[in-house]
Specification:
There is one protein chain. The protein is α/β, with parallel strands linked by helices. The strands form 5 sheets. Strands 2-1-14 form a 3-stranded mixed sheet, with helices on one face. It has helices at about 30-45, 90-100, 135-145, 210-220, 230-235, and strands at about 5, 50, 70, 75-80, 105, 120, 125-130, 150-155, 165, 175, 195-200, 205, 225, 245. The N and C termini lie close together (about 10 Å). Strand 12, helix 4 (about 210-220) and strand 13 form a beta-alpha-beta unit.
Length: about 250
């Protein structure tokens, strides 16, 4: 059964969000708001109870809530983002996590960890070594999740692990083998086809920018919901970045 989905609306400074591996392009705030509403509607349509994190209009990357917390077996690991500018985003996410009654712990300095680098597949937790997540952050996460197998993954030319790889409902990893050092990946037809949110059962959420991958997954028997997140993609965002799902 679906659970709770944490989201945060994009603020008026979203166009100032950090870009690392792409050229900066103008971001339309009003269009981003509309796309975010449609994204939320897709979650609600799949049965998820959406809870909004407190607005953070002065924090451009605020809508990318995935990076602020990793939830595993009802334990919320509050992150310490690798980008210093993003660290103030954590406190409001932490407040909502406490309100929901979820036990929380924090990554401590000198560790850094972004939630976008953490991919949970069954009892395995893949963690990307990236410009945002360091070895100390991975070590701390490993200690906090003793019942999981934590597997570090080397990355090439991407912001986060989940910028390159996610997982299908059956556990199959889908992504770009040139970007992430993982064997046996199902290769998507488009770059954004590597980004899948599991909605429950055989239902998945994907970006509208990956129609050929959508068709490929439908042929595998999956029910795919497409959402347009083009304004967020300009900031290296993807469908996973915009929510934290708590079962």
């Amino acid at each position: 059964m679906p659970g709770i989905a944490l989201v945060r609306k994009p603020g008026p400074r979203i166009s100032e969000g950090i870009v690392t591996h792409v050229e900066r392009a103008p971001v339309d705030h009003e269009r981003a708001l509309d796309q975010h509403e449609r994204y939320v509607a897709a979650l609600e349509g799949a049965g998820w109870q959406v809870r909004h994190v407190e607005a953070a209009d002065d924090l451009p990357d605020g809508p990318f809530v995935e990076d602020m917390v990793v939830v595993c077996d009802r334990l919320a690991v509050l992150t310490r983002p690798g980008a210093i500018e993003r660290r103030p985003e954590v406190d409001t996410v932490a407040a909502l996590v406490r309100e929901l009654g979820v036990k929380s712990v924090r990554i401590a300095r000198p560790g850094t960890l972004d939630g976008g680098d953490v991919l949970q597949v069954g009892r395995t937790v893949y963690v990307g070594r990236s410009g945002r997540t360091n070895d100390e952050g991975i070590t701390q996460l490993t200690a906090l999740l003793p019942e999981r197998q934590v597997v570090p993954v080397d990355l090439n030319g991407v912001l986060h692990l989940k910028s390159a790889v996610t997982a299908l409902p059956d556990g199959t990893l889908i992504g770009d083998p040139d970007r992430a050092d993982l064997p046996g990946l199902l290769v998507p037809a488009e770059e954004s086809g590597a980004h899948v949110v599991l909605l429950g059962g055989d239902r998945v959420l994907m970006a509208a920018s990956a129609p050929r991958t959508c068709a490929m997954l439908q042929e595998r028997g999956l029910e795919v919901t497409l959402v347009d997140i083009s304004e967020f993609e300009k900031l290296e965002g993807c469908v996973t970045c915009l929510s934290v799902l708590i079962m």
